[in-house]
Amino acid sequence: MAFGLALATLVQSVGHISGAHVNPAVTFAFLVGSQMSLLRAFCYMAAQLLGAVAGAAVLYSVTPPAVRGNLALNTLHPGVSVGQATTVEIFLTLQFVLCIFATYDERRNGRLGSVALAVGFSLALGHLFGMYYTGAGMNPARSFAPAILTGNFTNHWVYWVGPIIGGGLGSLLYDFLLFPRLKSISERLSVLKGAKPNDSNGQPEVTGEPVELKTQAL
């Protein structure tokens, strides 16, 4: 619940500024859906990793060693194979990205409820299930930070491969099957190159009202 409420607060606070991805898997999903440029996606991911490490470093420095532990390092639970763990991470992130795409979608008319809470509860749901298998990574940046500070990278690749695949599948499922975006290949390539304004990354490149996340809809 703490993870979910923290993300809901971030979406409510800065969603209209950046989209509040805070997750390389989510950013990759938007990239796969041609909703942001390659350059912006790279900058987002770099910021997410740097922010995660900085946050974990602050937590490490202010937490007494007796209660610090391993900074909630994601590890596989006993009896869970790397194949099972990767599959779990794929499905956890897939449902999370589907929720984000469905609630952020500016084409959706008559949105009810809170976008921020829906996204937060989706993350909490993933943790309630996944924590008994993999610790519920769902976010490569969140898994990367404690691994850096503790120097423990055992099976760390699971927490990158699973969420990235899950995010990409969620994007393809929503944008090409559930609610297709009618964009030509040339339009998608131009967005990836940053040649024209992106209409769905949370901060359009033209002045005016944000398109993806309208504050009053959160």
Automatic annotation (TrEMBL):
UniProt keyword terms in alphabetical order: Cell junction, Cell membrane, Eye lens protein, Membrane, Transmembrane, Transmembrane helix, Transport
Cellular location(s): Cell junction; Cell membrane
Membrane topology: Multi-pass membrane protein
Pfam families linked: MIP
Catalysis performed (reactions): H2O(in) = H2O(out)
Chain segments carrying region Disordered: 196-218
Family stated for the protein in its record: Belongs to the MIP/aquaporin (TC 1.A.8) family.
Description of how the protein assembles with itself and partners: Homotetramer; each monomer provides an independent water pore. Two homotetramers on opposing membranes can dimerize, forming a cell-cell junction. Interacts with CALM; the calcium-calmodulin/CALM complex interacts with the cytoplasmic domains of two aquaporins, leading to channel closure. Interacts with BFSP1 (via C-terminus); prevents calcium-dependent inhibition of the water channel activity.
Highest taxon listed in the record's lineage: Eukaryota
Transmembrane regions: 41-62, 82-103, 115-134, 157-179
InterPro entries, per the entry: Aquaporin-like, Aquaporin_transptr, MIP, MIP_CS
Protein source organism: Saguinus oedipus
Role description: Aquaporins form homotetrameric transmembrane channels, with each monomer independently mediating water transport across the plasma membrane along its osmotic gradient. Specifically expressed in lens fiber cells, this aquaporin is crucial for maintaining lens water homeostasis and transparency. Beyond water permeability, it also acts as a cell-to-cell adhesion molecule, forming thin junctions between lens fiber cells that are essential for maintaining the ordered structure and transparency of the lens.
Matching PROSITE patterns: MIP
Keyword Transport among record annotations: yes
PANTHER family in UniProt: AQUAPORIN TRANSPORTER, LENS FIBER MAJOR INTRINSIC PROTEIN
Protein's UniProt keywords contain Transmembrane helix: yes
Name this protein carries in UniProt: Lens fiber major intrinsic protein
